[in-house]
Design a protein that fits this description.
CATH class of the largest domain: Alpha Beta
Shape: elongated
Strand content: 5-15%
Number of strands: 5
Radius of gyration: 28 Å
Structural class: alpha/beta
Length: 343
């Protein structure tokens, strides 16, 4: 039987003990593996593998040994409890063995859990599970996680009390990260809040979220956007000594000011505009960018973007002879002074 993605997410955590089994397939091996882990853990419990109630079979081996899966579902463990025969990374070369096991399965046998990559509708294994009256088939695709999935990951990590804004940040983060990285972030957040009974805040999320590759440039961008011209020279000297390319500075500044312009021009206001940003912006950094966008306003930000574009063209010009860092520093000074002027 086919199982919808919504029903499958509930089923993975609370599977039915009397089912023949389940096929989980999809193009993203990580997503498929995480769902398979959740299902098997729910079927046999945390001690199931230690008690030898889980049999793992590489799908490729079933082509040579067609009886291996059949034998695995009929075996009886020394320990009492439900059993699982897990066939990993299979395809239609293993179809004869899988179909035979489905046909011979009887109540009391181990449940059959099969994982696969992308399977066509004509796949023999997929058809067998979809048409079986006591087994399920579900496709796992790269869709954004549902609220229910996000809450399940948070609950599994032991996170219960979460502020509304922090929950919004986590939902945005879940859409940007792959499922494995998001679960690791939840676990990191749970450790960060260990013995801390206060609700999770946006600041907590920001502290635990994967670092942006452009975090090292934030200082100079904030100095420019907040009009702190007197601080600009020393910071640029430091970045230059670290080998930061002037072109990278210009690209980063252009991206930052485009984000501020999008926020300032948003019909719902700067806060709504920042909330729509991808990748998402968290906690104190988000609040800071909201203040910057509100302080600049759309008109001045248009002027800033015009100056950034002109300097970019100048740097790319074949006849350009001035030092690149000097051009960028002069532009940043002009922008910092513009930030201090009234609207």
């Amino acid at each position: 039987m086919k199982l919808s993605a919504r029903d499958a997410n509930r089923y993975f955590g609370h599977p039915e003990a009397d089912r023949t089994g389940m096929l989980i397939y999809g193009p993203d091996a990580m997503r498929v593996a995480l769902k398979r882990q959740e299902l098997i853990a729910a079927l046999i419990g945390p001690q199931g593998e230690e008690e030898m109630r889980l049999t793992r079979i590489p799908g490729a081996e079933l082509r040579k040994d067609k009886a291996r899966l059949h034998d695995a579902i009929k075996e009886v463990s020394f320990f009492p409890g439900p059993r699982v025969a897990f066939v990993e990374d299979t395809n239609d070369t293993a179809a004869p063995a899988v179909l035979a096991a489905l046909e011979d399965w009887a109540p009391g046998d181990a449940q059959i859990v099969v994982t696969a990559g992308q399977l066509k509708a004509s796949s023999k294994i997929r058809k067998a599970f979809e048409t079986h009256n006591n087994a399920y088939a579900v496709g796992i695709y790269n869709d954004p996680p549902s609220r229910e999935e996000i809450e399940a990951d948070l609950k599994a990590a032991g996170l219960k009390e979460i502020e509304h804004e922090a929950m919004t940040d986590l939902a945005n983060l879940a859409r940007e990260l792959d499922p494995g990285d998001f679960r690791q972030t939840c676990e990191k957040l749970a450790l960060y809040k260990f013995k801390d009974d206060l609700p999770v805040t946006s600041g907590d999320v920001a502290a635990c979220a994967p670092a942006s590759t452009e975090a090292a440039l934030d200082d100079v961008l904030n100095i420019v956007a907040e009009g702190r011209a007197q601080e600009l020279g020393p910071v640029l000297r430091k970045l230059e000594a670290q080998g930061v390319n002037p072109v990278l500075l210009l690209i980063s500044a252009t991206r930052h000011f485009r984000a501020l312009y999008a926020a300032a021009a948003d019909p719902g206001g700067a806060s709504a505009g920042i909330a729509r940003m991808r990748p998402p912006i968290f906690g104190p950094r988000r609040d800071r960018m909201v203040r910057q966008a509100s302080g600049w306003g759309a008109v001045k930000l248009e002027q800033a973007l015009s100056g950034l574009t002109d300097t970019d063209l100048q740097l790319r010009s074949a006849g350009q002879r001035a030092p690149e860092m000097a051009l960028v520093e002069r532009l940043f000074l002009r922008l910092a002074m513009l930030a201090r002027r009234g609207g």
